[in-house]
From TrEMBL:
It is found in: Cell membrane. The chain crosses the membrane at residues 36-57, 69-87, 108-126, 132-154, 166-189, 195-213, 249-270, 282-304, 316-334, 340-363, 411-430. It comes from the Bacteria. The keyword Transmembrane helix applies. Keywords: Membrane, Transmembrane, Transmembrane helix. It is a multi-pass membrane protein. Gene3D superfamilies: MFS general substrate transporter like domains. This is MFS transporter. Its main location: membrane. Residues 35-434 form the Major facilitator superfamily (MFS) profile domain. InterPro entries: MFS (IPR011701), MFS_dom (IPR020846), MFS_trans_sf (IPR036259). It comes from Microbacterium ureisolvens.
Length: 434
């Protein structure tokens, strides 16, 4: 791909040039919404395809034993998720201070995508777990920088009255990315293609977004220096002073813990318990994801609408958590693949309702209306942190479970169900919301 000149970048922004900082958009620029949705879809396609399918098989191919593959997968995904957790807010903050002549967000979107593509290629050819680990950390950091910078353009480009609609369009890109990746991998037979093809699509969509974006440009750096203390201080809250917000954070963390650990080890579960070959396992994961996402798309709007109509949040969050628990228990004891797919659909049914109502509940317990973005960032940690912790401790739980009559993966899914159940119960510790 040839490098774009500053003149070409400016021309791509349109005849009006770059948006000045502080400008309130009168209307959403033409092409912006599909461009933002496209870049989000591309990032989720590139990042979630390995998490859902291809990373497990890559690690299996370069690990001497199944037990070592399980431990290695937990290590790679756990450490990588930590890098994502740090990179997303850091890149967002740094993009706010970027004075590039290409704009504030464009360098991070395009640069992150290109670095990520290189990291994916390195994973594809790696024959060492440590190389995969380093490359996956690079990928998580760079692709989350793309997400942070791209989504930071929303208030820059979209009037306040239209942001909900644009956010809704962008919101469906996560399940579409999961489905797209699961579908794409069924046609790719080697590790290199499974990592590079989704990443190449993501890079192409990032370039498309850069071309349509009329980016803000910051001509002078902010007078106040950005310090490490300011960065970490932005994600701190006082649970004693704001107990409802603290219980909301903990509820989200516990339910997400039960949800986040499911997909990571599903490939191993299918190949070990049901003796499926690699290609059949990939096709089964696609079917399970279709069932889960279909159920999620049904329950998400229904849960939100009923919650608004009745005027209560906590019962819907609790019921959604219990439904996920039922799915996890069924998954743990699934006697055949059909039951496993049904279990995934039940989990998706609960998750869809939880995600819709939980966000509405969260907006009612934010500590300070002047710090909404900061407090939502704190809640985002409760979404992201389980994706680091669950894979990290899973190998130990699976190893302990393997010594019992139940088996390693059954014990692991039951543990996830127990944690999610705790989240469903603790939602009633939130007193300021019905």
């Amino acid at each position: 791909m040839t490098e774009m000149s500053p003149a070409a970048m400016a021309a791509a922004a349109g005849t009006t040039g770059f948006k000045a900082p502080g400008t309130t958009p009168g209307k959403t620029p033409r092409g912006y919404t599909p461009g933002l949705a496209a870049v989000n879809f591309g990032v989720y396609l590139a990042l979630l395809t390995p998490v859902m399918v291809s990373m497990a098989f890559k690690i299996q191919h370069i690990s001497p034993t199944t037990e070592q593959a399980t431990a290695n997968l937990g290590l790679v995904l756990g450490v990588g998720a930590f890098f994502a957790l740090i990179a997303n807010p850091l890149a967002g903050r740094l993009s706010d201070r970027t004075t590039s002549r290409f704009g504030m967000r464009r360098p991070w979107v395009l640069g992150g995508a290109l670095v990520g593509l290189g990291g994916f290629a390195l994973i594809g050819i790696a024959d060492s777990v440590w190389v995969v680990l380093i490359a996956w950390c690079i990928v998580q950091a760079s692709m989350n920088a793309v997400l942070a910078a791209a989504n930071a353009t929303l208030p820059d480009q979209v009037p306040l009255a239209s942001r909900g609609k644009v956010s809704g369009v962008v919101g469906i890109t996560t399940p579409l990315g999961i489905l797209g990746g699961s579908f794409l991998v069924t046609f790719l037979s080697d590790d290199f293609a499974r990592f590079v093809v989704p990443a190449a699509i993501a890079t192409a969509l990032a370039v498309l977004f850069v071309l349509v974006l009329k980016d803000r440009r910051l001509d002078e750096k902010p007078a106040q220096r950005f310090t490490i203390g300011q960065f970490f201080g932005s994600f701190v809250f006082n649970p004693v002073k704001h107990p409802d917000f603290g219980w909301t954070w903990l509820t989200k963390f516990l339910v997400m813990f039960g949800y986040a650990g499911i997909a990571t080890f599903l490939p191993f579960y299918l190949t070990e318990k049901f003796q499926l070959d690699e290609q059949t396992a990939i096709q089964t994961i696609l079917l399970a994801n279709v069932a889960s996402m279909a159920a999620m798309m049904i329950s998400s709007p229904i849960g939100g609408i009923l919650s608004d109509k009745i005027g209560k949040r906590r019962p819907f969050v609790a019921i959604a958590g219990v439904v996920m628990v039922v799915g996890l228990v069924l998954l743990a004891f699934a006697p055949d693949v059909t039951t496993l797919v049904v279990a995934q659909a039940i989990i998706g049914l609960g998750a869809g309702s939880f995600f819709s109502v939980d966000l509405a509940l969260a907006t009612e317990v934010l500590p300070n209306p002047d710090d909404t973005a900061k407090d939502l960032g704190v809640l985002n940690i409760a979404n992201a942190l389980p994706q680091s912790i669950a894979p990290a401790i899973a190998p130990g739980i699976i190893a302990i479970g393997a010594t019992t009559a139940l088996g390693g993966y059954t014990v692991y899914y039951l543990f996830g169900a127990l944690v999610a159940l705790a989240g469903a119960v603790l939602v009633y510790r939130i007193k300021g919301v019905k």
